[in-house]
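Problem 12. The chain below contains 261 residues. Write out its predicted structure in token notation.
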Amino acid sequence: MKYKKIKFNKQDKIATITLNDPETRNAITNLVLLEEVKDALRSIEHDQDVSVCILTGEGKGFSSGGNVKDMLNRENMFSGDGLELQNNYRNGIHSLSKLMYSFEIPMIAAVNGAAAGAGVDLALLCDLRIGSENATFASSFINLAVIPGDGAAWLLRKTVGAQRAAEMVLTGRTVDANEALEMGMLLKVVKPEALMASALEIAKEIASKSRETLIITKRLLKSTDTLGYEDHLNLCSANQGMLHQAPAHDEAMKAFFNKRK
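Solution.
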């Protein structure tokens, strides 16, 4: 598929999706951009040659979330009556959020600039987040007298804890890269010119592992949202028993004892 609003690249088991609508700071409510991201993610998930994905933005912003001009004019996703708007959310931005939450390939957000509104959610739905010194985060829905309607309250609470999440969504203030690092929202902060190299360094380390084991490990991490500890251990034993019989485990053991990668 030839994309208009994203850039898509695959190399050495690493896929990179770049949101490419810099005029709107990569507003995710653009239906073309939204559908193209979903298409790229689905293609990655079924591609045995991809083990990790990097998500980043073109231009000054990572993603501005919803297009505020469309909101003002009640156009595109923000058009219609209450029921139509509800369905616009469910069939639009929420369809991407659910796809990213259930996505089984490890994802790294390379946050190049401002992440606002639903743009914060896009970053939080990734497993790891590397931030440029220019990165900022603002779950700013309250400033427009609407709620964090795309999952931010749930995602922030899991990422930074109850009190920090409450402070961010109830004030709508902007958090800079260093504070985001201190809060645990970012794994590391690097100079803008080093952002993609830093993300690729981690991606290469992940991509060197068994793809099947990465997928199951990510499932185990996600299971903590719904399972108690004992049920989690039962899931561990079932999967571990299977993986001990897999060719990748045999190869990894040989490499370990022969002191090679």
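Discussion. The chain has a mean pLDDT of 94. Students who got a different answer should revisit the alignment rule from Section 12.3.
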